[in-house]
Specification:
The chain is mainly alpha-helical. It has a domain of 62 residues: 434 Repressor (Amino-terminal Domain). It contains 16 helices and five strands. A hairpin with a 6-residue loop joins β3 and β4. α6 packs across α10. The longest helix is centred in the first third of the chain and has 23 residues. The protein is elongated. InterPro entries: IrrE_HExxH, Rad_response_metalloprotease. This is IrrE N-terminal-like domain-containing protein. It comes from Methanobrevibacter ruminantium (strain ATCC 35063 / DSM 1093 / JCM 13430 / OCM 146 / M1) (Methanobacterium ruminantium). Pfam families: Peptidase_M78.
Length: 338
C-alpha cells in the first residue's frame, strides 16, 4: 500500500498561489502535479510522499510547510509599481512563476548578505534618496558624483582589443561593482524570465536595496536598465519595468539613464552631421562610434539627442536611423526628458 502524506489542504493551495501558479499559469505545472493539485487542495485526496516532494520543489518550499495547521497571514513578496503595459498580447497582471522565483531568490540573497555583515560586525550602509529637482541632468550629475566616476574615466574602460569585449561586458561588470561598493545596492541577474515580461526591476530598502536585471537582455540593454532602475531607487521606489518604455511614467527614468551614459554637453561638443554620416556608413574612429563603444547607449538615442540640439535635421535623422520622421515624437517619449 502506498503511504500518503497527511498534509493540510489549505497549505497546498497557499503554496501554489504563493509560487504564482494562478490565472492560467497552472497549465505550466508538470502533468503529475497539474492532474492532482485540485484534489489535494480540496482534501479529497492526499499526495504520496514522492508527489509531495515534487510539489515542494516546484513551489519552492520545504515539505514540512505543508503540515502547518494554519496558513501564514503575511506575504513577504515586495510591493512594486507595475510599469508594464497590459494589452491583449502581453498580459502581466500577475507575475509569472519564473519571475516570482527570481524575486524571492534576490530577496533571500539580500537577507544572507545582511546576516554576513552582522556576523562580521560590518556597518550596514543606509541608502540615500535623491531630494533635488527632477531634472535629468541634475539626477545624472548626482549619480556620477555618488559613484565618483568621471566621463573621462568611463571612456578608459574600452578594451584595447575591442574584439575581446564587443558586447561591453567590461562596462557592465564595472558599473555593477562600483554601484554596489559606492552606494550599497545589490545587483543580480534573473534566469529563465521572458524578456517581454521584465527588462529590469528594483526593490527599495532603506538599507541595501536590490536591482534585478534580466539575464536574457543584451549587455547594452542591461547597462541601460541598470541606470534606469537605479533612478527609481534614488526616488525611493520599488518598480518592475518591461518593454513599454514609452509610457509616461517611464520617460523620465529613461532620460536620466541616457543623459548619464551620453551627456548632452559632451554629445554637442563633439558631434556634427558629417561624423554622424561617417558612422551611418559603418566607418569607425569618430565621436559617435566611440560613444556607442564607450557607453553601450542605444544608437537611436544618440541620434535623437543630436536632433534635439539642432545638430541634424529630420531628414538626417531618417537617414541615420532608417526610421521615418513620423517616429521622432515616439522616440522623444522613449529616450528624452528635459
Amino acid at each position: 500500500m502506498v503511504e500518503r502524506a497527511n498534509i493540510n489542504p489549505a497549505m497546498m493551495l497557499w503554496a501554489r498561489k504563493r509560487a504564482g501558479y494562478i490565472n492560467g499559469f497552472e497549465e505550466d505545472l508538470p502533468k503529475d502535479i497539474k492532474s492532482k493539485y485540485k484534489s489535494w487542495e480540496s482534501g479529497e485526496e492526499k499526495p504520496t510522499w514522492t508527489q509531495l516532494r515534487k510539489a515542494s520543489k516546484k513551489f519552492c518550499l520545504p515539505s514540512a510547510f505543508f503540515f502547518l495547521e494554519k496558513v501564514p497571514e503575511d506575504d513577504d513578496f515586495p510591493k512594486m509599481i507595475n510599469y508594464r503595459k497590459l494589452d491583449a498580447d502581453d498580459i502581466f497582471e500577475n507575475n509569472s512563476p519564473s519571475l516570482i522565483k527570481q524575486i524571492r531568490k534576490s530577496q533571500s540573497r539580500r537577507e544572507h548578505y545582511l546576516d554576513l555583515l552582522y556576523e562580521l560586525e560590518e556597518n550596514i550602509p543606509s541608502f540615500e534618496i535623491y531630494e533635488g529637482s527632477l531634472n535629468k541632468k541634475h539626477v545624472s550629475n548626482y549619480i556620477r558624483e555618488k559613484l565618483g566616476i568621471s566621463l573621462e574615466t568611463q571612456k578608459t574602460w574600452i578594451r584595447k582589443n575591442k574584439s575581446k569585449d564587443s558586447r561591453h561586458y567590461n562596462f557592465l561588470n564595472k558599473w555593477k561593482e562600483i554601484i554596489t561598493r559606492k552606494i550599497g545596492v545589490l545587483i543580480f541577474e534573473s534566469e529563465g524570465v521572458a524578456l517581454n515580461e521584465m527588462r529590469g526591476l528594483c526593490i527599495f530598502h532603506k538599507e541595501v536595496p536590490i536591482i534585478l536585471l534580466n539575464g536574457k537582455d543584451s549587455v547594452n540593454g542591461r547597462i541601460f536598465s541598470l541606470f534606469h532602475e537605479l533612478t527609481h531607487l534614488l526616488l525611493g521606489q520599488s518598480a518592475i519595468c518591461g518593454d513599454d518604455e514609452n509610457i509616461d511614467e517611464e520617460i523620465f527614468y529613461n532620460a536620466v539613464a541616457g543623459e548619464f551614459l551620453v551627456p548632452n554637453e559632451d554629445l554637442c561638443k563633439n558631434t556634427n552631421a558629417d561624423n554622424m554620416d561617417t558612422i551611418s556608413n559603418g566607418a569607425g574612429g569618430n565621436y559617435l562610434n566611440n560613444q556607442i563603444k564607450y557607453n553601450g547607449e542605444p544608437y537611436c538615442a544618440v541620434v535623437l539627442e543630436a536632433y534635439e540640439k539642432g545638430i541634424i535635421n529630420g531628414g538626417e535623422f531618417s537617414r541615420f536611423t532608417n526610421l521615418n520622421k513620423k517616429f521622432i515624437p515616439f522616440m522623444f517619449n522613449r529616450y528624452l526628458f528635459s
